[in-house]
Amino acid sequence: MEVKENKTLQKILDVANKEFLQKGFKDASLREIVKKAGVTTGAFYGYFNSKEELFDALVKEHADYIINIYDTILADFQNLPVDQQCSFMDNHSKYGIEKMFDYVWNHKKPFILIYKASAGTKYENFVQQIAKKDIESTEVFLNTVEENGKEIQRIDPIIEDLVINNAFNMFFSLILRDLPREKVEHCLNQLFTFHRGGWDLLLNIS
Asked: Pick from 179, 188, 157, 158: which is nearest to 93 by CA?
């Protein structure tokens, strides 16, 4: 009985993944998902209470994992003395990007849903939420640097917002393209170098 239930659940999830990807969350039909999965509406509601909960089942674990990676790396960085933060910022950022890259690369399906089909769900601003965390952590870093007597050139908040949001959008866009891993890694390394050089020139931490 348990094996049958697991197969039924997996069938619902597989059908839902295709339906959401093809039509997006808003236009995907719960009735069509139930029909294609070969289950009754009553059977479906034995597993999920809503279309939102079904989408959640496909992506929540993976979205939470990426947020946890970011928060953990950020906390480790902020616990460093300020001189080490300045010295190791590049390495710390690259380490975080590599960890996030590995996870997203190995779990592409849920992130394709988040990136392309999540309008109308709590995940539709997922990339922007990560970018917001990065903007806030950048502000904390700059304040810490100034409080410790170092002079910096402040970046206009509009530019900071645009650059960081675009960087994370490009990060996910590159990974989710149909490209070999080596090509994506090469492009991400160039993207990181490009952005790092711009930040260094603008901040001019003395």
From this structure: 188
Cβ–Cβ < 8 Å for 51, 29: no
d(CA 123, CA 92) in angstroms, rounded, equals 27
Residues whose CB falls within 8 Å of the CB of residue 33, separated by 6 or more in sequence, listed in order: 12, 15, 16, 19, 44, 54
What is the full per-residue pLDDT of the chain (206 aa) written as tens digits? Answer: 454 567 889 999 999 999 999 999 999 999 999 999 999 999 899 999 999 999 999 999 999 999 999 999 888 888 888 777 777 777 778 888 899 999 999 999 999 999 999 999 999 999 999 999 999 988 888 888 888 877 778 888 898 899 999 999 999 999 999 999 999 999 999 998 888 888 878 777 65
Contacts of 12 (CB under 8 A, 6+ apart): 33, 34, 37, 39, 44, 47, 48, 54
Task: Provide the residue count of the chain.
Answer: 206
Tokens of 67: 């947020």
* CA 60-65-69 angle, 5° bins: 150
The rounded distance, in Å, linking the Cα atoms of 5 and 91 is: 47
Q: CA angle 90-95-99, nearest 5°? A: 150
Q: What pTM was computed for the model? A: 0.88
User: Comparing C-alpha atoms, which of 139, 146, 140 is closest to residue 206?
Assistant: 146
